[in-house]
Amino acid sequence: MPLTVLLVDDEPLVRAGLRAVLSAQPDIEVVGEAADGAAVIPLVRQLRPDVVAMDVRMPLLDGIEATRAVLRSVSEPPKILVITTFENDEYVYGALRAGADGFLLKRSRPAEIVNAVRLVAEGDSLLFPAAVRRLAAEYGNTSAREAMDRAALTEREAEVLRLMTRGLSNAEIAVRLVVGTETVKSHVSAVLAKLGARDRTQAVIAAYESGFVSPG
């Protein structure tokens, strides 16, 4: 089965460019388009895409609120890849914090666009650049630090989280720690459960906001 994608952007040229790049891949199918976040929920329910590639800035409902709406109201929601012009845009950080799974720069090369969609769909790696890490660290607060303390991660779980913040996949972490991939998956699941994180992105945000890791 092909990987299905819904495109959401108020610029027709951006949608056309993304469609051309993604549709050229034999394992990816663009199943729909929308010009605003307000149209996302009915389309997600109708088309059941694996990934929503969504502009972070739109006139009626931006990518942050659209992400929140999808995660709140759709059972088994798709992965959400936010699209932006600037990587240090606070809207991007807001969308990631709201539950988006990664982000894509509009100026990205075709191969990077395809890779971003596949990475987000697989869900075991991150699109989390230095600029967004710095934003997350700037939003650090006492409650985030207290939540990390309450999580009481084991030494191995803490090590896995540090490697997650560097964007490593489960397979890459397994090689680094010289353990099996299934063992890494178990550790990742434990980290998410202890932090109350929906996915890897949320766990990494918690790591930066709490000061568990620094953006340096």
TrEMBL record:
CDD domains: LuxR_C_like (cd06170), REC_NarL-like (cd17535). It holds the Pfam family Response_reg. InterPro entries: CheY-like_superfamily, NreC/VraR/RcsB-like_REC, Sig_transdc_resp-reg_C-effctor, Sig_transdc_resp-reg_receiver, Tscrpt_reg_LuxR_C, WalR-like. Residues 4-121 form the Response regulatory domain. It comes from the Bacteria. Residues 146-211 form the HTH luxR-type domain. The modification 4-aspartylphosphate is found at D55. Keywords: DNA-binding, Phosphoprotein, Transcription, Transcription regulation. PANTHER family: TRANSCRIPTIONAL REGULATORY PROTEIN NARL-RELATED (PTHR43214:SF24), TWO-COMPONENT RESPONSE REGULATOR (PTHR43214). This is Response regulator. The lineage of its organism: Bacteria, Bacillati, Actinomycetota, Actinomycetes, Kitasatosporales. SUPFAM superfamilies: C-terminal effector domain of the bipartite response regulators, CheY-like.
